[in-house]
Amino acid sequence: MPIKVGMVSLGCSKNQVDAEHLLFDLKQAGFELCVDSGECDVVVINTCGFIEAAKREAIENILEFAELKKEGRIKVIAVTGCLAERYRDELEKELPEADIVLGIGSNNELVDAINRALNGEKTVMFGEKENLALEGGRIISNLPFYAYIKIAEGCNNRCAYCAIPQIRGNYRSRKIENILEEARFFAENGVSELIVVAQDTTMYGTDLYGEKKLPELLNKMCEIDGVKQIRLLYAYPDKITDELIDTIANQPKIVKYLDIPFQHVSENVLRKMNRPGNKESALALVKKLRSRVPGIILRTTLMTGFPGETEKDFEELCEFMDEVQFERLGCFAFSPEENTPAADMPDQIDDEIKERRADLIMTKQMTVIENFNQKQIGKTLETVVEGYDKYAGSFFGRSAYDAPDIDSKVFFSSDKLLSIGDYVGVLITDCMEYDLIGETV
Q1: Are 61 and 45 in contact (CB under 8 A)?
Q2: Helix (H, G, I), strand (E, B) or coil at 102
């Protein structure tokens, strides 16, 4: 009987890509991949360690599987990913239940480590971050019609609050030809939507080619037969060029949707964050995007309670929100992360104030979303089918307005039998909080 291995991947889409490389390696080694991790011989927990909430989720997962191991239901627990990389010594000491702890630079050791663990030998290994493989086979772990394309690893931006450079190292772009080869493979195997990700997609190519190459890459991806749409995430505001805007505007396959993590717009806060820009530059960028890419959906992430954020700074952030009316927005309260400059800054904000400000941002955003959704009633939106909700008695999916997992859904009825991955026209008839309701036409 083959050994059954299950994977729990936490955190962002970039971490998910790493997990998919690991799944491929495990299958190639002869392990049987198991969907239900609780029924496996071995469970691999690919952790996130970016902010406090993510760390708690990772530890809770490890402890949950530790209980199953005590009960004899699983044999081996392997911990990989950002939490393992970031808290090397602490993880081994505090969570002895883990039989395998691998930093991101030792992901290629997972197969051998599992074989050793099955024979009672523990493995703790941390290779150089740059050893993390950016190429290789993958097994898609989400719905089969879309795939994340990670075009680079690491980050050079050095935002004062962020631990990613410590965890993932410096920015490393993949070669254009390798990315295109992967994209073609997915297209030939039924993937219609490619989602381009990196810690900072707009910086792509600067390390490898000496200049920004994202527009060139996107143009070449658009030439691939079988690709219906390409979605771009994590575009840093100060690196969005006119060439990139023209590419988004002129390429029909590129979804008119852009994720720009502004974080804040107060110049006082941005300088402490070690980020460029201000409210005026942010507004100018938004105005340019909306004028040159009509109908573009803009998503952003904001942060409240950064050390030294005054009520005036927060009011400026709220005014920015009111002026822009982002179609998609997320907000989180500042989390002081160990060994980052922001964690030791003076004028730390009380948790209650940070959370109150974040809640206020999201309350304001709910009104924006409600107004936006009301304007969609009567429109027909192309929607990709993601599944059928038997309790609601309707299909559900995503329009071009929405990225997987983070944005809204469209719930709709249909007289036809539909399959996951089908694209259908949905007449919007109503809305419900963040989601739209309609029927196929």
Answers
A1: yes
A2: strand
